[in-house]
Amino acid sequence: MHCASKYLSGYVLFLAVQIVFSQNGCPAGLTTEQELILNYDGNCYFFSNTALSYSQANNSCAQKEGFLAVIRDNATQIALSKHADLVSDIAESSSYWIGIKRENSTYTTTSLGESAEFLNFDSNSLSPVQTGQNGCARLDLTEDSKWIADDCARVFWDIGHICQYTGTSSAPYTKAGPGFIISILAVFLILQ
C-alpha cells in the first residue's frame, strides 16, 4: 500500500465517466415522447408538432445537428407516411415540412443542396412547377400522404416538421437503437 501511495504521489488521476442516453438512435434529450420517433434505414426521424415556417423548422432540426427529412425513395415515403399517420393524434399535425425545396426551377434537398430525384407531389395540387413559383414541400396526410408545395414562410398550427438524424452527426447517436454512449475522460496532472 505504501509503495503504491509513493508511486502515485506525483500524479493525480482524474477520471470522469459521462453516460448519455441515446433515445432510439436520436440525439440525447430530443424528446420524452418516444412515439414521435421513428428509426428507419439507419436514420432517426423525429416528428415535431411545433408550428414553424420552413426555414425555422430547418433551423430547429439543425440545433440538434439534424436536417429536414429527405425522402429519397418510395420505401422511405411509405415508412414516414405510416408513422406520421400513427402519431397524428399525439403530434396534432396533419402535415409536415420535409427537406425538399424549389429554387430556380429545380427541386433540391435542403440538407445538401443536391437535385431531388424522388418527388411525390399530389397531382390535384398546384406544384411550384405548374405555377412557376418557388416553394417548399410538406407531406400532407389529408392528401393520401402526397406532397403539397406551399409558401415557405407559412406557419399554421397543424403543420409540423420531420427532422432527420444520421450517424454522421457529431451529436450523440447510435445506429443500434436504444443504448448508452459512454465517454471516458482521463486526465493526468503532474503535481510538483
TrEMBL record:
<keyword id="KW-0732">Signal</keyword>
<dbReference type="InterPro" id="IPR016187">
    <property type="entry name" value="CTDL_fold"/>
</dbReference>
<dbReference type="Pfam" id="PF00059">
    <property type="entry name" value="Lectin_C"/>
</dbReference>
<dbReference type="InterPro" id="IPR016186">
    <property type="entry name" value="C-type_lectin-like/link_sf"/>
</dbReference>
<protein>
    <recommendedName>
        <fullName>C-type lectin domain-containing protein</fullName>
    </recommendedName>
</protein>
<dbReference type="InterPro" id="IPR001304">
    <property type="entry name" value="C-type_lectin-like"/>
</dbReference>
<feature type="domain" description="C-type lectin">
    <location>
        <begin position="40"/>
        <end position="152"/>
    </location>
</feature>
<dbReference type="InterPro" id="IPR050828">
    <property type="entry name" value="C-type_lectin/matrix_domain"/>
</dbReference>
<feature type="signal peptide">
    <location>
        <begin position="1"/>
        <end position="22"/>
    </location>
</feature>
